[in-house]
Amino acid sequence: MIENQKIRPAQVIGPLGEPLTLDDLPSPNTKRWVVRRKAEVVAAVNGGLLTIDDVLERYGLTLEEFAGWQRAVDRSGMQGLRVTRIQHYRDLYERQLKY
Length: 99
What we know:
The longest helix has 14 residues, at 63-76. This protein has a two-stranded antiparallel ribbon. It has helices at residues 2-5, 35-47, 52-59, 63-76, 86-98, and strands at 12-13, 19-20. By secondary structure, the chain is mainly alpha-helical.
């Protein structure tokens, strides 16, 4: 298993299709989380560049907060991360589950 071997890729594909390295990730001091920064962190975890534990420690996030970002990306892509559209995408997803 990759987790046990501590093997990580040098780069992964970012949310906009560009190569993403550790140096390209948002600063650990980030206070303003825009859609692109959230998506980059999710892409880094999905690609194996960072572990969830790394993200929680590095950015001071809660597991619930990060899991919400991952769910939003899985359901609606980067647009699902927009704070102003959370309710819209939540309603849309719930309607899709009904039918």
